[in-house]
Amino acid sequence: MTTYIFFDDALRMFTNAYLLSAILLIAASGIGLAMIETIEKTGER
Question: What is the share, in percent, of the chain residues with pLDDT greater than 70?
Fold first, then answer.
């Protein structure tokens, strides 16, 4: 028994995965920058 994935479904899956990874990357970089900023602020005092 072979199961096939249609091109439209595969393209939709790849698009969703790409958008999700881009959103997660932006969120992670924002959290990292916020952490760096707070570390720098506490070091100045």
Answer: 96
Contacts of 5 (CB under 8 A, 6+ apart): 13
CA distance 38 to 30: 12
Predicted TM-score (pTM) of the model is: 0.68
User: Which tokens is 25 given?
Assistant: 């990357």
3-state secondary structure 1-45: CCCCCCHHHHHHHHHHHHHHHHHHHHHHHHHHHHHHHHHHHHHHC
Distance CA 32, CA 23 (A): 14
